[in-house]
């Protein structure tokens, strides 16, 4: 409505995706601030997708740490 033009607006875009919990938090913030909150994201992440991403990150981190350890071993004098 026209009388809502003075209402504050907040635009949030989350790279990498947004969760349902984040959407709920934005709703609560919009109520507390008496503002319109517009959300966007690369995708909406479900709990199984979050777990899959976390597992992939852990595997990637483990590989990186292993490679760094191997490089340190090669650099040590015999």
UniProtKB/TrEMBL annotation:
The lineage of its organism: Eukaryota, Sar, Alveolata, Apicomplexa, Conoidasida. GO terms for biological process: vesicle-mediated transport. Gene3D superfamilies: 3.40.50.1910. Pfam families: Sec1. Transmembrane segments: none annotated. This is Sec1 family protein. Belongs to the STXBP/unc-18/SEC1 family. It comes from Cystoisospora suis. InterPro entries: Sec1-like (IPR001619), Sec1-like_dom2 (IPR027482), Sec1-like_sf (IPR036045). It comes from the Eukaryota.
């Amino acid at each position: 409505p026209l009388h809502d033009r003075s209402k504050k607006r907040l635009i949030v875009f989350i790279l990498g995706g947004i969760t349902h919990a984040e959407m709920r938090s934005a709703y609560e913030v919009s109520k507390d601030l008496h503002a319109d909150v517009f959300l966007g994201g690369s995708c909406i992440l479900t709990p199984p997708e979050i777990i899959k991403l976390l597992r992939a990150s852990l595997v990637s981190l483990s590989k990186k740490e292993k490679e760094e350890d191997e490089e340190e071993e090669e650099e040590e004098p015999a």
